[in-house]
Amino acid sequence: MHRYRSVLVGCGGRGQSHALGLLANPDRFELVALCDQDDARLGALAAKLGISRGYADAEAMLAAERPDVLCFATPPAVRLQLVELGVRHGVKAIAFEKPLALSLAEARRIVTLCGDGVKAVVCHQLKHAAHWRRVKEIVDGGDIGAIRSFHATARPSMLRVGTHLVDAVLWLGAGARATWVLGQAHGRAAYLEDHPCPDHVAGIVELSTGVRGVMEIGSLAPRHLDEANFWEDVTVTVQGSEGYARVVLGSGWEAVTRRSGGRTESGPADSSPGEPEHLRLLADWLDDSRRVHPSNLETSYQGFEILMALALSSLERRRVDLPIRGNPEAILVS
């Protein structure tokens, strides 16, 4: 095992979560410096974590510190610029917040930049919590029989939590790719936010296995939790030939399996942070290229493309086959 020299850009709440994930793996990472354009925010996190070196400029930090790993948690509008900086300064890995990008063209550029030389991961950390892993065990173990369908819902928007939702469906579907989608979009208020997108998208996703999923993401999604738990109202139900399994981010898991005799089994939500495991798996991938990270850039791009295809389908009033052909630029328009 190697210990990787690391730096962090972005010292807000999500940046702190990434920093704590690095520090939770002291045998795998050395967090040597922080960067933020807000001096007060930078100073507060540096003092809290005991990090002595701070920068206001990411390029200056990369040039001075020469890290193995660039980690960043910033507004999505600067994803591409930071990836470009990391690649230019020769980092071995880049770990960054979701969403992958704000446009299909930008996402494709990030994939191209990283290529075979940089191991990049997007922070889809929800699947490391115990209740998500329990549903994965039930599905992979065949306890609900063959997968028949998915129903996935999230009340936050497609670029805030919808990206986690699609990632979870692909993960629970054993990595099957989507072959086409048919979608509809609604609402313009979220275009005024820093994650600009429709208020709601919904549609059908067909996977290469022939299994279909129904997705409802945003303001019209069904409510499984009360308003106080809005951000945790994220649900995936896997219907099988002999039962079902459901996970709700904010309340836990439940299942009826062929072993339960019609009885509903359940368990609580695991609220422990997923970033330590997410980053530990990145160190494992750096150690051994065969140990591919479950939130690797290729998989994250597939999930992002599904969301963009749902919006494109609504815009062009047609089924969208995947991968998306050409380079449509105006998918997320108000």
CATH homologous superfamily title of the largest domain: Dihydrodipicolinate Reductase, domain 2
Top-tier CATH class of the largest domain: Alpha Beta
Taken from the alpha-carbon principal axes, the silhouette is globular
Strand order of the largest sheet: 14-13-12-11-7-10-9-8-15
Helical proportion, percent range: 25-40%
Number of helices: 9
N-C termini distance: 48 Å
Output the CATH topology of the largest domain.
Dihydrodipicolinate Reductase, domain 2
Radius of gyration, rounded? 20 Å
Report the uncertain regions: none
Main beta sheet, described? 9 strands, mixed
Tally the beta strands: 15
**Helical/strand content category:** alpha/beta
State the order of secondary-structure elements, H for helix, E for strand: EHEHEHEHEHEHEHEEEEEEEHHE
Share in β-strands: 15-25%
Number of domains: 2
Q: What's the average pLDDT?
A: 96
Characterise the protein shown here.
The strands form two sheets. This protein has a nine-stranded mixed beta sheet, with helices on one face. Helix 4 packs parallel to helix 5 and helix 7 crosses helix 9. It has helices at about 15-25, 40-50, 60-65, 80-90, 105-115, 130-140, 160-170, 275-285, 295-315, and strands at about 5-10, 30-35, 55, 70, 95, 120, 145-155, 180-185, 200-205, 210-220, 235-240, 245-250, 250-255, 265, 320. The protein folds into two domains: about 5-125 and about 275-295, Rossmann fold, CATH 3.40.50.720; about 130-270 and about 310-315, 2-Layer Sandwich (Dihydrodipicolinate Reductase, domain 2). The model has no long low-confidence stretch (mean pLDDT about 95). The protein contains nine helices and 15 strands.
